[in-house]
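Blackboard transcription, Thursday session:
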Amino acid sequence: MLVNCVVYQNGKKLADIPVEEISEYVTRQDCFVWVALAEQEPAELDKMAEEFGLHPLAVEDARKGHQRPKIEEYDESLFVVLQMVEAPKEGLDGSLRLGEVAIFVGDNYILSVRHHTQKGFVDVRARTEREPELLRNGSAYVLYALMDNVVDRYFPIIDALESELEQIEEQIFVRNAARSNIKALYTLKRQLMTLKHAVDPLMDATGKLYGGRVPHLCAGMQEYFRDVYDHLHRIHASIEAIREMLATAIQVNLGMISLNETEVTKKLAGWAAMIAVPTMLAGIYGMNFKYMPELDWAYGYPLSVAVMIGIDVWLYFRFRKAHWL
Amino acid sequence: MLVNCVVYQNGKKLADIPVEEISEYVTRQDCFVWVALAEQEPAELDKMAEEFGLHPLAVEDARKGHQRPKIEEYDESLFVVLQMVEAPKEGLDGSLRLGEVAIFVGDNYILSVRHHTQKGFVDVRARTEREPELLRNGSAYVLYALMDNVVDRYFPIIDALESELEQIEEQIFVRNAARSNIKALYTLKRQLMTLKHAVDPLMDATGKLYGGRVPHLCAGMQEYFRDVYDHLHRIHASIEAIREMLATAIQVNLGMISLNETEVTKKLAGWAAMIAVPTMLAGIYGMNFKYMPELDWAYGYPLSVAVMIGIDVWLYFRFRKAHWL
Amino acid sequence: MLVNCVVYQNGKKLADIPVEEISEYVTRQDCFVWVALAEQEPAELDKMAEEFGLHPLAVEDARKGHQRPKIEEYDESLFVVLQMVEAPKEGLDGSLRLGEVAIFVGDNYILSVRHHTQKGFVDVRARTEREPELLRNGSAYVLYALMDNVVDRYFPIIDALESELEQIEEQIFVRNAARSNIKALYTLKRQLMTLKHAVDPLMDATGKLYGGRVPHLCAGMQEYFRDVYDHLHRIHASIEAIREMLATAIQVNLGMISLNETEVTKKLAGWAAMIAVPTMLAGIYGMNFKYMPELDWAYGYPLSVAVMIGIDVWLYFRFRKAHWL
Amino acid sequence: MLVNCVVYQNGKKLADIPVEEISEYVTRQDCFVWVALAEQEPAELDKMAEEFGLHPLAVEDARKGHQRPKIEEYDESLFVVLQMVEAPKEGLDGSLRLGEVAIFVGDNYILSVRHHTQKGFVDVRARTEREPELLRNGSAYVLYALMDNVVDRYFPIIDALESELEQIEEQIFVRNAARSNIKALYTLKRQLMTLKHAVDPLMDATGKLYGGRVPHLCAGMQEYFRDVYDHLHRIHASIEAIREMLATAIQVNLGMISLNETEVTKKLAGWAAMIAVPTMLAGIYGMNFKYMPELDWAYGYPLSVAVMIGIDVWLYFRFRKAHWL
Amino acid sequence: MLVNCVVYQNGKKLADIPVEEISEYVTRQDCFVWVALAEQEPAELDKMAEEFGLHPLAVEDARKGHQRPKIEEYDESLFVVLQMVEAPKEGLDGSLRLGEVAIFVGDNYILSVRHHTQKGFVDVRARTEREPELLRNGSAYVLYALMDNVVDRYFPIIDALESELEQIEEQIFVRNAARSNIKALYTLKRQLMTLKHAVDPLMDATGKLYGGRVPHLCAGMQEYFRDVYDHLHRIHASIEAIREMLATAIQVNLGMISLNETEVTKKLAGWAAMIAVPTMLAGIYGMNFKYMPELDWAYGYPLSVAVMIGIDVWLYFRFRKAHWL
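(Written on the board underneath:)
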């Protein structure tokens, strides 16, 4: 589905054009064409490949989807794949949803193709059109704006994961919460891995856009791509921090489970003792010996019961003191 | 066993030739010979070594088999070893089967020798012959096609492992499944390691075919080998993701086992209490004291039994509320 | 809030100047201006950006805060972000507080902007003014002095964490301390991670100020920045040491919990035996067989009780010897 | 002890010579001397050091033994230390035995000194003498042959460790084997570490003999040393695979131990219930109430016993169904 | 405290000189001064800094102490910090003691300052004076001799740690030793970390004295510094080996604790059954039914006791066979 197809000149929008006219503008020195596709159909992408002269391997990747995030150079053009991570509306219980956007960038064009993602890049287009002095930098600036936008969408996700971890941490030393904690920790781990596999390869790839041998296209924009890299690095550091705390939390939770087991055993032992001792005494006075003087005492029965209760009260306070009960 | 021996010129099949004529074609500028052996016999391989002038160390590796995946340069030629990972037909219960293919590539020839693998490369030959404009690139393109084919066969395996992990994850928080989970996790780990040891060394080796100092043979084909590398990297990332989730799953499963232990202990304690208390009471009324007024009451017996039942009912609901029963 | 705005010439303070006069001094060859802001308001920072010609991306980072520690070059100037880690006054029970200082450094100016931190850099200014022969090195020396000051503030934190670990270690083999140990270990881990994420990125960044291609600004000051790096490396090594011991301590603590479980079970078993054996004997003499000679013995009852006590005493010493009780 | 001292010319054995004549041959252009010592005495090694002009630090290393595997350049000569790992004859129960061979290689000589190892290098000498066209490469080829031989001896060890792991894996899910498994896993880990510390440093060192700046001596032999490296890499990969599976196996075994604990507890609980319920019933009918109608029934006793048995049978099948028994 | 202050010329001792005369000799071409301080007082070090022209940052490090091991270049001179690890005399129960030595090396001088360490470098001075042909290499050779000496002192420590680990390993599969094992493992870990933090940074630093761009001072001595590096690498490898075995031992020990728990539970269950069954039988014959034929049998009582004993004997052998008792 074609979302937009616009020509820009000197940082200003020139016109919305039909797809057929792309080839006219794409050869002009001072223009560039910015096309946005969503959930592309094969025919559309083929058309684009022809208009812009895209490399068949890149086109095949964009068509198939399910790529890992990457930035590849094909001669003078770049092929960028980004993953968009979206939290389901109903909160963080389930797994994160993954969208994908493939971007083809040449000197005079930029083509974005997005999959499985609801939120598009209308905001990005609006914002960049408001800043003509920056948009004058051409397609590389649009690439920066798109990447910056995708990366900014990771921040609320990482914040949600962090607050999820904090919630679990509060529960971790609470008794009887082990089962739900363990589930929550595992779910969090899964979500974290999803985010990590969207962020880490992209960070590595972005690092090549500002230091060392930079692709021709990004030459004047290095400080901008370093900014994107810096954001990705910050997310990466947060992911690693959560990951390490998560590993520790899982171990600590295991310790709490064992500890609870011990406490259950102690409690069990305490009550068992308080039942077993009277039972033993009752057993003794249930013996059928002929000569058992206590049996004939007038107050034998209440006395024996009193002894039983006395022992139990004493046991109860001893166990209490030892924190078994 | 000789499978095929074909000469190509300018991307088109020229003729099937007998082995003896190889040396005639292999020296022509614009031809290349593509030979496929399967489960080679020593004599065959010696013959080939002579025809193509293969290096004795490479020939010895191909003969012995059980190599790790690698790409080695011998002067102007390449020696490539790939591992083929095949799932047994009866599902993923057992271990994965490993096949192997050794490929010798020179400017004018390509020789593949496969071992312990049922599925050959007939498809590859058919597909490449349908694309003469690409096949014109010569033996390096055939190498690409073979590697691409082998790598594509890893995808269904990794998908199977991923869905296996998902199945275990669903079972992991189910009670009483710990034993089968633990077995399944261990088997999955083994399978994952098999795949990892096929993929990782190949990825490293393939990385040298497109960046930095590229072997002479692969010079014009770098984008194609980068594509293979990219696929391997994607599989590698999936393997690492499964591996990390697997480690977490094993730990979580350990936690679930301990948790179940605690729950069994609690259940046990609950029922024990409900038996022990009446036993104690019965013991008390079984004492042989002379003066035990309750014993003479007309309704002493039913009353005592009622008290027992009453206490048990009360205990039952208390334990229920505390989630011990 | 403007804290200070001072011009220095040849290592000596020239004058406190109002913000408006900055532009006069900043272009002089032998002067530099040192401005300190605290909890800046947007307007202030915009003013500064204009006076010093700061890069918009850096200004945006300083305004937003919550950056990771970093050192970025913008043409001839540097943008430095440091994190300040402060222990809460009421001891190390809670989490560490994080402050932040952003520093813009050019040939003729240095601007520090601090956030969320109580202790400022008045000491640094006083000390550097007492050493005019060093201050003559210009803004780079002030940068060194600020970084050195921030890094020196990490040492008491790491000392506190080390002594915290030692305290836990003393408790770890004490019985019944497992629950508080496990909490303390987790809290310590959290604090350690906070410090680690302040120190590690800064160490990496500082490493680029003295070796290899050094930013123009820091050219003559390499030994000083190596000194800062060395301090950071020492803190880093201490963090890694605590981290590894912490991981071991968590595992060992888990072992101690299991061990205590075993000991509780043994104790429980011991006392259970000492109750169960007399109960069994009493049960036997409570049987209603007609012909049970012991029942008619005059000393049957005391004898049976004596046997019970005898067995219990024997059991007690056996369990004692086996360290079950 | 001098094992051999032979001069070779153009790949062919010239003569066995006495140690005194070494200096005559070692200066000839086209000859090289190959000396083998075993369990050297100090005097022998000093003599050799003098004849060949060995570096004192290398000689000291060879004399002391207990070196880690390494390859060091001293000007034009190489000093190589290899470890030989031998399985004890009585199987893999104990720890692996470590031998050592120090090799000094110069343009015209090669001297091997072996320690604590029974099997020498007679085979190597015999094989190389059968291949004069290769032996013509001189001392570097002999070095290759010795290294190849030592590395080939690692393969049966790694095979033994792999089959040891497989044996343990078969036992791991068998009940009641936990104790012997845990011992076997620990022993295997120890053996693996021994092999790892022989293989890994050697692999790193060998890597420098074929890529990048290669020592003058090995110049024409790079493909051969790459072959040794490749073998070492294969062993290294196997070691890493075993190591990772071992770590998983230890964790899984821990899980199985906990699982068995739970199963024992369940079994215990099941039988306890089947004993406790009749005991409770018997207690009830052992009460001394005057009016207990059942007591007077003619079939009261068999009925009560029947009820007891009935409840136990019912319990038995319930526990059976729940897999507690 | 000044220990020594000696001038050497051409590898031979010239004279003991007072501190005041240092400046006379330090400028002579063919001389060098070797000064040793122990537990320096501030004034001494200031004096030295003046005489040798030491860098203030290095002097400050030497004064403060508690540095990590490092080798820093200041123009033409080197500043080296080494840690000396000493086992307490009363064995390895406590923690290792850390001493420190700071060494300043220039072309014509070497100054060592040691802290918190009893054993000095008198041996080193004596040995180097016995080898004038080596001492002729000047201050760099003395640096080598000092480093070699410090590194050689690590070997007995690592041997002690290794034998400590072996002792624990022998205990690990012994029952009832878990508590002392766990303590010993933790103490060993602590000691290992202390050694590791002395050795690892030094190894990295020493690596820069022989490969790549070597400091001017060490130019002709590279083989000697490589030897020191090699020793450090060997210690490093031993530390890593102990560390990995230690981690495994801790896990295995945890497994043994769980296993013992299971065994205790089984034993407990066995004896419980042997008490509970007779108790149940006794309960049954303690019921007050009117018509219980067995009660009237002459041999009812002994028979019932015989049955009880019979069942217990049978149970005992069954449990024995199942290894529960």
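Lecturer's comment: Chain E is about 60% helix and 15% strand.
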